[in-house]
């Protein structure tokens, strides 16, 4: 069904909203209702060329604006984003489906990156060491790169773009953003508010589209660096093609995050933590908890409480305040998730909570309820693959070492968490677990913006993560100066 006022999303290039030259049009449904709420044209190479040209033109001026002045524009942007928090969260829920509470959390996490970017005058500072030899001084200076592109996924329409352009722009770069063609709506408000903050034209450009836009950016000679966040195969492609074309690339990829539950944990808090991490945002988080390795001694108690609490969670429209599990992003994704749940049953796992059959209450949305499997083993697809849905696999292990060894078999290594009251267990976990982001009794160990964000193994292609000092290093190049004056 198409509502009477379907908006066609536009690109923002230079100083105005422009129609895409793409002929292929994609419907954007509200995942909660299936109703088409917007359409987006898949842009083509000429749109990319125009956006890059506008960013390149703007770079000449923007890179010479003093760093504190660049930061002042961001203070203004920060203010506007804060004033529009509620509106931004509603747009996220409308186009992505996650509950309003999760959307509000996302808005806040995005704003925190803009806060970080306002401190660029500190973060971008170089180093100096006078008198490195008689009459000679040494120093390191940091400079922007030029035009930078950002390619983002559907699951965080606000936070992930904000991981990229505020810091890149604060460092003196200009930017071309390509958000997910499945969630293109919020970007319009982000760009509007950006220019309301007074930024000069061309500093941030937006091109809607899909893989042709990505490949156009990867091949474009005037793009110096690419920030990518999305699924593993695409991250690998972006990293390999971008670096082969001489670009700097950071490509944050897919995940399968594990928690290890020890017998000495606080059972109630652990269950609440696992529920939030596994089923919040309908499991469509790169930091979602997808596997729990629970030590035998506490496994039955843990599963009894986890199952009974999970059965209380309401699946429904994210706009409804009582909803915990919103819809997944598309009907096709729902079908894929259901086929994963079917495969878990066929491969012999015990299905304790079944989220497949909740259609009757919500006929046109893309709903999958919270789902829990027990007695999962690492040879099963539900253990191995990123399902990206509210589907949790529980594996019983004999002790901490077994839990760590099992977790480290995953091809992904984004986040991992231990629930325990033992400092010793936590220390062993921290040392032996292979994950880029580690938590102790925290549900989702997503770092705050002033730390770097990135995984290991197949969860990340690149060297420098997003945010924190890594982000500043990624968006700048160095000159080391050795000088002597006669
Ligand atoms: P996706 O890979 O389908 O899309 C990401 C971006 O790549 C989009 O802008 C899309 O248009 C583009 N794209 C898709 N297919 C392409 C192709 N064949 N060639 C070139 N470009 C292509 O990812 P998604 O489904 O939108 O997002 C979910 C994924 O993102 C999950 O795997 C999740 O774990 C991952 N993710 C990772 C992190 C992290 O920090 N590691 C954060 C958020 C999401």
UniProtKB/TrEMBL annotation:
EC code(s) of this entry: 1.2.1.27
Pathway(s) it belongs to: Polyol metabolism; myo-inositol degradation into acetyl-CoA; acetyl-CoA from myo-inositol: step 7/7
A single BP term in Gene Ontology: thymine catabolic process
Catalytic residues, chain numbering: 286
EC top class named in words: oxidoreductase
Residues holding NAD(+): 154, 178, 181-182, 386
Primary role: Catalyzes the oxidation of malonate semialdehyde (MSA) and methylmalonate semialdehyde (MMSA) into acetyl-CoA and propanoyl-CoA, respectively. Is involved in a myo-inositol catabolic pathway. Bicarbonate, and not CO2, is the end-product of the enzymatic reaction.
Family statement drawn from the similarity comment of this UniProt entry: Belongs to the aldehyde dehydrogenase family. IolA subfamily.
Known partners and oligomeric status: Homotetramer.
Protein name: Malonate-semialdehyde dehydrogenase
């Amino acid at each position: 069904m198409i509502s009477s006022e379907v908006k066609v999303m536009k690109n923002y290039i230079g100083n105005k909203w422009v129609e895409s030259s793409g002929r292929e049009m994609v419907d954007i449904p509200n995942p909660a209702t299936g109703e088409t709420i917007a359409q987006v044209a898949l842009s083509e190479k000429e749109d990319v060329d125009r956006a890059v040209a506008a960013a390149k033109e703007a770079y000449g001026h923007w890179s010479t604006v003093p760093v504190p002045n660049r930061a002042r524009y961001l203070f203004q942007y920060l203010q506007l984003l804060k004033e529009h928090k509620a509106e931004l969260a509603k747009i996220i829920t409308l186009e992505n489906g996650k509950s309003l509470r999760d959307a509000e959390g996302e808005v806040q996490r995005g704003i925190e990156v803009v806060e970080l970017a306002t401190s660029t005058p500190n973060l971008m500072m170089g180093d100096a060491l006078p008198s490195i030899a008689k009459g000679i001084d040494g120093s390191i200076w940091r400079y922007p790169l030029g035009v930078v592109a950002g390619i983002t996924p559907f699951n965080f329409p606000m936070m992930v773009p904000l991981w990229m352009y505020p810091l890149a722009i604060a460092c003196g770069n200009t930017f071309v953003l390509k958000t997910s063609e499945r969630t293109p709506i919020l970007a319009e408000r982000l760009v509007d508010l950006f220019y309301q903050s007074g930024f000069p034209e061309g500093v941030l450009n937006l091109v809607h589209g899909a893989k042709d836009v990505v490949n156009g950016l990867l091949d474009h000679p005037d793009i110096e660096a690419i920030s990518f966040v999305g699924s593993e195969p695409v991250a690998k492609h972006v990293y390999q093609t971008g670096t082969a074309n001489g670009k700097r690339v950071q490509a944050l990829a897919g995940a399968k995050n594990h928690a290890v539950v020890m017998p000495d944990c606080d059972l109630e808090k652990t269950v609440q933590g696992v529920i939030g991490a596994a089923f919040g945002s309908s499991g469509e988080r790169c930091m979602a908890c997808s596997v729990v390795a629970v030590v035998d001694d506490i496994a039955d108690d843990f599963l009894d409480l986890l199952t009974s609490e999970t059965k209380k969670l309401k699946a429904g429209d994210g706009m409804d305040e009582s909803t915990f599990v919103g819809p997944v992003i598309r009907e096709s994704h729902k079908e894929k998730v259901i086929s994963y749940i079917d495969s878990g049953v066929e491969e012999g796992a015990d299905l304790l909570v079944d989220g497949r059959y909740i259609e009757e209450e919500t006929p046109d949305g893309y709903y999958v309820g919270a789902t829990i499997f027990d007695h999962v083993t690492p040879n099963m697809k539900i253990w191995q693959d990123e399902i990206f849905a509210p589907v949790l696999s529980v594996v019983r292990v004999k002790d901490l070492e077994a839990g760590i060894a099992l977790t480290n078999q995953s091809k992904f290594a984004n986040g991992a968490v231990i629930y325990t009251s033992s400092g010793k267990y936590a220390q062993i976990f921290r040392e032996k677990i292979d994950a880029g982001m580690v938590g102790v009794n925290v549900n989702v160990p997503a770092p705050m913006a002033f730390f770097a964000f990135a995984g290991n193994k197949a969860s990340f292609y690149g060297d420098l993560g997003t945010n924190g000092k890594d982000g500043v290093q990624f968006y700048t190049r160095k000159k080391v100066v050795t000088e002597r004056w006669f």
